[in-house]
């Protein structure tokens, strides 16, 4: 996965922001590793991104927005809440694997960040109570991370597809 920098001067330094998103967990990657993978100096990275977290946040938001667009499209193409959510989960899984972004998308957001995936899954699940979005996001991330950890993609996809969602049409009475 290659992502371009937010810099307006990217044409003068086209390699400044190239970053292989799936190589290692965020905590294990150094700024030197990122610079080497991008073919630039650490100074160039710091010029375009304040720090490692800034680069990670930029890349994650960009890739995550593309993921959510695909998941929303898949959900809207299928009737029924349970079926539309299942379609969204599988399309999202396929996208993460195809883009080689399993680790990037499979790791939960940083503690200070929102969770757009959980928010989307909550919205698609309404009127089911909000924890459903976090629960579904956790299951999706586990399937995606299993591929990053060496499980064949078809097995991770099959496991995710084995979830049988049965979302009622109304919220339970308290």
Question: Can you tell me about this structure?
Answer:
- With 174 residues, the chain is mainly α.
- It folds into 2 domains: 10-55, Arc Repressor Mutant, subunit A; 61-161.
- Helix content is 57%, strand content 0%.
- The chain contains 8 helices and no strands.
- Helix 4 (81-98) runs parallel beside helix 7 (131-148), helix 4 (81-98) packs antiparallel against helix 8 and helix 6 (116-125) crosses helix 7 (131-148).
- The model is unreliable at 1-21 (pLDDT under 50).
Task: Summarize, please.
By secondary structure, the chain is an all-alpha fold.
Task: Tell me the strand percentage band.
Answer: under 5%
Number of strands: 0
Please count the helical segments: 8
What is the H/E order?
HHHHHHHH
Helix/strand/pairing category: mainly alpha
Helical amount: 55-70%
Q: Compute the gyration radius: what is it?
A: 18 Å
Q: What characteristic shape results from the CA principal axes? A: elongated
For the report, how would you describe the main beta sheet? none
């Amino acid at each position: 996965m290659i992502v371009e920098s937010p810099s307006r001067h990217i044409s003068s330094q086209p390699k400044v922001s190239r970053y292989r998103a799936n190589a290692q967990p965020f905590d294990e990657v150094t700024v030197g590793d990122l610079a080497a993978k991008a073919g630039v100096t650490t100074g160039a990275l710091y010029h375009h991104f304040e720090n490692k977290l800034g680069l990670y946040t930029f890349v994650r938001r960009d890739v995550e927005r593309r993921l959510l667009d695909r998941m929303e499209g898949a959900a809207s193409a299928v009737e029924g809440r349970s079926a539309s959510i299942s379609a969204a989960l599988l399309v999202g899984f396929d996208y993460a694997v195809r883009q080689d972004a399993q680790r990037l998308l499979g790791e939960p957001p940083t503690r200070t960040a929102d969770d757009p995936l959980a928010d989307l899954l909550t919205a698609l699940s309404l009127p089911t109570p909000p924890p459903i979005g976090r629960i579904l996001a956790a299951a999706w991330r586990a399937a995606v991370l299993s591929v990053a950890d060496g499980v064949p993609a078809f097995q991770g996809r099959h496991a995710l597809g084995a979830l049988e969602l049965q979302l009622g049409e109304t919220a339970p009475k308290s």
